[in-house]
């Protein structure tokens, strides 16, 4: 699965994260769950869209694009991401 991720997503040449990066990912995920638990559903959904749209336009990469290119690689999407 990791080799497929490396071959199809914008993370070409990805070799792994540092321990600090992995710990930070886990901490931010936990924080997100705590925030989502306290917020109303509509604001959690709005925050999700915001957190996907900002990186989409700023760095041309987000979770949605990663999943999309992992499940159904698309040359046009990969070319668009490469023009950063």
Question: What is the fold's blueprint, element by element?
Answer:
Layout: H1 2-8, H2 19-38, H3 41-58, H4 63-71, H5 75-82
Describe the structure in your own words.
It is a single chain. By secondary structure, this protein is mainly alpha-helical. It is built from five helices and no strands. The protein has helices spanning 2-8, 19-38, 41-58, 63-71, 75-82. The longest helix is centred in the middle third of the chain and has 20 residues, at 19-38. The two termini are 25 Å apart.
Question: What are the defining features of this structure?
Answer:
single chain; globular; 84 residues
Short description:
By secondary structure, this protein is mainly alpha-helical. Helix content is 74%, strand content 0%.
Low confidence ranges: none
How would you classify the helix and strand content by structural class? mainly alpha
The biggest beta sheet reads: none
Q: Count of DSSP E strands?
A: 0
Name the overall outline: globular
Helix-strand sequence: HHHHH
Determine the fraction of residues in helical runs and give it as a percent range. over 70%
Return Rg in Å.
15 Å
Proportion of β residues?
under 5%
| Distance between the amino and carboxyl termini | 25 Å
């Amino acid at each position: 699965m990791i080799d497929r991720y490396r071959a199809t997503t914008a993370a070409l040449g990805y070799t792994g994260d540092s321990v600090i990066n992995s710990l930070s990912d886990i901490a931010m995920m936990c924080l997100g769950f705590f925030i989502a638990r306290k917020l109303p559903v509509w604001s959690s959904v709005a925050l999700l869209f915001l957190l996907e749209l900002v990186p989409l336009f700023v760095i041309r990469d987000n979770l949605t694009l990663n999943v999309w290119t992992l499940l159904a690689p698309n040359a046009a999407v990969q070319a668009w991401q490469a023009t950063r």
